[in-house]
Amino acid sequence: xxxxxxxxxxxxxxxxxxxxxxxxxxxxxxxxxxxxxxxxxxxxxxxxxxxxxxxxxxxxxxxxxxxxxxxxxxxxxxxxxxxxxx
Length: 86
Known about the structure:
This protein has 86 residues and is α+β, with helices and mostly antiparallel strands. Helix content is 31%, strand content 41%. The chain contains two helices and two strands, in the order H-E-E-H. The longest helix is centred in the last third of the chain and has 14 residues, at 72-85.
C-alpha cells in the first residue's frame, strides 16, 4: 500500500492509519481509505489510488479474514514505534 511511515503532524496523528494499513496488508481482504479528494483501494494484493470528489474527514473500510495469522514481527515493530512517540 502507499501509506507511508512518518507522515504525521509531528504529534503522531496519521500513525494510526499507517499501522492499520500494515496490519491490513498482512491479514486483510480489502481496505478502502477515503480522505480529502482521493480514495485508496487495496484488494487481493493490488493497490489503486483514485481521485474523486472532496471529502472533509476520513472514511476507512476494512474487511479481514480470520484464516490468516497476524505476523507478530509487524506488531512488535509497531509497538516499538508507539513507545518511541511517548
